[in-house]
Amino acid sequence: MTYEIAVGDRIRTVSVVRKGAVLHVTLDGQTHVVDARRVSESAMSLLVQNGKGEAPVQSIDAAFAARPTAGDFDVYLAGRSLAVQVRQAGTFGRQKKDGAGAHGSGPQRVLAPMPGKIVRVLVKAGDTVKARQGLVVVEAMKMENELRAARDGRVREVQVGEGQSVDAGAVLLVVE
Amino acid sequence: MTYEIAVGDRIRTVSVVRKGAVLHVTLDGQTHVVDARRVSESAMSLLVQNGKGEAPVQSIDAAFAARPTAGDFDVYLAGRSLAVQVRQAGTFGRQKKDGAGAHGSGPQRVLAPMPGKIVRVLVKAGDTVKARQGLVVVEAMKMENELRAARDGRVREVQVGEGQSVDAGAVLLVVE
Amino acid sequence: MKKILIANRGEIAVRVIRACRDMGIGTVAVYSECDRAALHVRLADEAWPVGPSAPRESYLCIDKIIDVAKQSGADAVHPGYGFLAENEDFAAACRDAGLIFIGPSPEAITLMGSKTAARQAAIKAGVSVVPGTDEPLSDQTSDADVLAVAERIGYPLMLKAVAGGGGKGMRMVAAPADLPGALRAARSEALSAFGDGAVYLERRIMAPRHIEIQLLGDHHGTVLPFVERECSIQRRHQKVVEESPSLAVSTDLRRRMTSAAAAVARGVGYTNAGTIEFLLDADGSFYFLEMNTRLQVEHPITEMVTGVDLVQWQIRIARGEKLTLDAESLLTPKAHAIECRIYAEDPENGFMPSPGRIQGLRVPQGPGVRDDSGAYEGGEVPIFYDPMISKLITWGDDRDHALQRMRRALAEYEVRGIRTTIPFFKWILDDEDFKAGRFDTSFIDRKLGGNGSQLQAIEPAHEDLAALAAAVHVFTRPARRTSDATPPPSRWKDAGRAEALR
Amino acid sequence: MKKILIANRGEIAVRVIRACRDMGIGTVAVYSECDRAALHVRLADEAWPVGPSAPRESYLCIDKIIDVAKQSGADAVHPGYGFLAENEDFAAACRDAGLIFIGPSPEAITLMGSKTAARQAAIKAGVSVVPGTDEPLSDQTSDADVLAVAERIGYPLMLKAVAGGGGKGMRMVAAPADLPGALRAARSEALSAFGDGAVYLERRIMAPRHIEIQLLGDHHGTVLPFVERECSIQRRHQKVVEESPSLAVSTDLRRRMTSAAAAVARGVGYTNAGTIEFLLDADGSFYFLEMNTRLQVEHPITEMVTGVDLVQWQIRIARGEKLTLDAESLLTPKAHAIECRIYAEDPENGFMPSPGRIQGLRVPQGPGVRDDSGAYEGGEVPIFYDPMISKLITWGDDRDHALQRMRRALAEYEVRGIRTTIPFFKWILDDEDFKAGRFDTSFIDRKLGGNGSQLQAIEPAHEDLAALAAAVHVFTRPARRTSDATPPPSRWKDAGRAEALR
């Protein structure tokens, strides 16, 4: 089985083959022998072949939390948490073409991360914005949270006003 | 819904009826209003009406572990653990008649509690035994464990010999 | 005292319940709609509903809570911190209802609750304060007037809510031009957080440390100070890492700061637990900042270095007991302790709050580790309240030992399903300046440079491992959709965030 | 020291791994077939298989373990306790392989490992011993000869395995008639447990307390004793509850016992961690019982009352560091601590072992609580090893505080799917004699009267609540069979037990 896995800024191609009691996992062309045990629905104990030795002895205690999109996980490794997207081989390539998906570049719909109140709207339709520039401030959990632009662009439309209450996922404004 | 529930030496009749957001649980003729929330597949937070007041405010944090027989549970309450058997109304009555079940009185088949080695057999066929008298000693988990008679009776047959290895559930001897 | 009502929620309610258990005292929890299955409800002896999820309609409703206290037959009330903990009306309402309020007198709360009055009290006790306005500036005060006052104090300066606390309604102002905007923001925040838009100005001490002194005062005239807490590691003026003792405080300085703190408390006849916060200047001079008339979030580090259970002593003092603790030993740390506040925030997305269902939880265990938490596996972190879900405390022979144990504990700690600040603390603990104790209150903002981007610097090796693990997980996962492969509804809010901040 | 192999499993392996983490030292775990997914494997940096589940084929295989140590590039080995911890051949094999054995020298293990030689060492150090045989009685010795020796010592007497420990191969003999049977049992147990059937006889001290002294010795001639541990609460000669300090030990007695212990250790040039066990007579005289040349299960209570991390010091001593601890403070308890050993045994069924899958686990948290565990939710407790799954430790200002916290912690502790001794400890902690400190080593056997029946005395009110909760659980349970409504195969063994002991 071969997957395309996006983690950090890179998409890795990973293939997994069962060889008797162990798995052979090939990542970026290098094959690792892995002895994998599921310790719960969402946690695994992995013994991974580390470069030099032949025996799979590097102990990796990995846990997983499903994200809303099927195939997306938070992976927990020794106190670190990494967002990972697992797809069938070729998927990301296709996504790129139609400009959607994790690494696409289409218009950015800025959604409310949670139910809250719009405290301030910092831009108006037509404004050009830079990456990480503040767009709108939402108050929730006793804190004011500034939503920023993912990249340079132009504000196409603003769909909320100050003082307005919004639900999670509500479209606040669109940057193109 | 009405259940017969065996806990300790007594069988209680308990009926549960949903009344809007709460449950009405009748136990030994007394009805308690219960606000029940499931906090996991096997744990519940119960707010129970305590005698005097009308509002269900007594907080009971109850957890459950399934036992091999369907309807049997260990119930965990504030560090206590109680073995409970839940049955359809009438079940225990029937069981009594045919002499089986938790409170039956038929012949006692003494089974190996776990894989282990028979260290000593303390009785032979035909011996009369008293309740709690030692019958056979099994070694497991680095400890010698004595299996005792549940009540007075006579040893009908001994099916193992000293030094023999036995699997969990193996019949060791029968007392009648 | 037979039964105590805890007028709070989450981890601090759980903390107080445990203290009551340790004293054989009954506990009454209160809960809002979204907290019906919260841990404090599950662990208490009784739990009473007090209304809808919004704090104003439940945990901040004095009448409802007093009413529950009476109905339940509680004879005392512990306010925890936050919510009504520093509300003099609540303390008075308890007293009027014949309930023992486990905290200072309403008068003390009123006095020290006003930042400006508190400054007066400090000055009266001979303790120096940061130069600033002595009178509150109501939200009627014109920008012009405020600018005039600011001129006298000098820039850069701090703009603070008179009723403030926890960094809310607080802004740093570098130059006159920034004042009007900051003023507007501070007032709106203060108004929504405390229902009072009044602010005041203070000169900004450059590169100060935030050092605070825990105090206990009984009803027999005794006030005892404890070894200091170092609370300079802050984000948005919110403490995130605290330790005790402080590397910056010598035995001599400790004597001076603790006696100054005790003097202020004695001056106002303070009782029960309280904390006096100081700014410690680079030159070793210190200024009274404010007094918190309640238990502090970071109280456990003081407990671990002195062996004193502060919540238990709050209760003993409230029921009239004499402070029998040895004053000397309270100033002699028996260990070094550190606390990390675990927040339901995403450090890699500008610390955006991350409420939702906790799909999985592994709490660190073993020697020198304490976790005061309000979370459990399967539990919800609601959107309505402060996002702190747990306080992780470690201690050891010395600072290095405590830090090593914290690294170990953070590595064992897993909170799955929501994003937390756990990775953020790993990053702080590995920072060379932090390890060397070279920091002041601007540490985090300086390091983060306004955004969390540095945090994303994870070695490719870990990305490879994550990719490998994820592949194996998907490859070996049982065919049927498992409970946590199906995202709970609440997770959808992350989709919004992920997209908004992509 | 860069990398340590832990030649053990379960909670003690996890404990050692945590100590290594706290020192930045790499860890190598070893595991048998049934332990592949055990917690010590999951938490270690590396994990190497050492064979089938039976101890003799894995954890007791010196060659395999030395081989793994070499292959993995470990430079030291920590044996934990049990298995090879007191095996001089293993200590020697490590030395021969150029590995640092984190423990005493093979010579010290050999000497103090022989109960009879140890008695000689104690006598040489001027410490009195319990009257008994000075020479081992090999399993060739005839019953008649043993009876003759017994006559000289007098009844009642204790029959003990020369290679013994942990109560294995130990029997109390009240009268000559019982000797042959007891001899047979003790020899068979000793043979299977230690591969050596030799035994010896000791006069039985009536109603003694079991008091032990923890020691650390470095390689520079320093031996330091610690405040005593009270270990009289035993079942089948196995400690189940330990506390420190002991109510029966005055400051003066502490001085005498600790110096006696240190004298014995110095006399044999003892290094690293060790413990000397004494019987304390009602009249205040104490007798050397034996020395354990390893870390003890109950070491955490000493850590909590002195603030010293004993495992970390074992490592520091092994790498040649000097003992820099303050001798005086080690004899001055800073708190009172208590430990309950959580066993996978069913206290209501004659403490029958209860291996199997842990369906659910809730570990107590909060102030003054430490849980050193090898268990996790979903994990298996195998049938092959000691049934102890966790050590629960609490501490507080005084004994009552520590006991209250233990009650609280036990109430929070849930281990579901297997039976554990948690309810048993609740019962002990509520016993009037225990609360008053009125007990000796016969406490539990006297209270239980040979069977656990007393334990079943649960108030009807709790039975009602259990019935109510179970009814609600069944009534509201989702229709589909949930993972833990379906019993895992391993649970079937309980069916046997339930029936056998009904």
Structure explained in plain terms:
The complex is a heterotetramer, with two copies of chain A (176 residues) and two copies of chain C (502 residues). Chain A is mainly β and 176 residues long. Helices cover 4% and strands 59% of the residues of chain A. Chain A has one helix and 16 strands. In chain A, the strands form three sheets. Chain A has an eight-stranded antiparallel β-barrel. With 502 residues, chain C is an alpha+beta fold. Chain C has 18 helices and 23 strands. In chain C, a hairpin with a 5-residue loop joins strand 9 (209-217) and strand 10 (223-225). Classes of the chains: A mainly beta (176), C alpha+beta (502). Chains in contact: A-C, A-D, B-C, B-D, C-D.
In short:
The complex is a heterotetramer, with two copies of chain A (176 residues) and two copies of chain C (502 residues). Chain A has 176 residues and is mainly beta.
What tags apply to this protein structure?
heterotetramer; A: 176 residues; mainly beta; 8-stranded antiparallel barrel; 4-stranded antiparallel sheet; 1 helix; 16 strands; 4% helix; elongated; C: alpha+beta; 9-stranded antiparallel sheet; 23 strands; 23% strand; globular
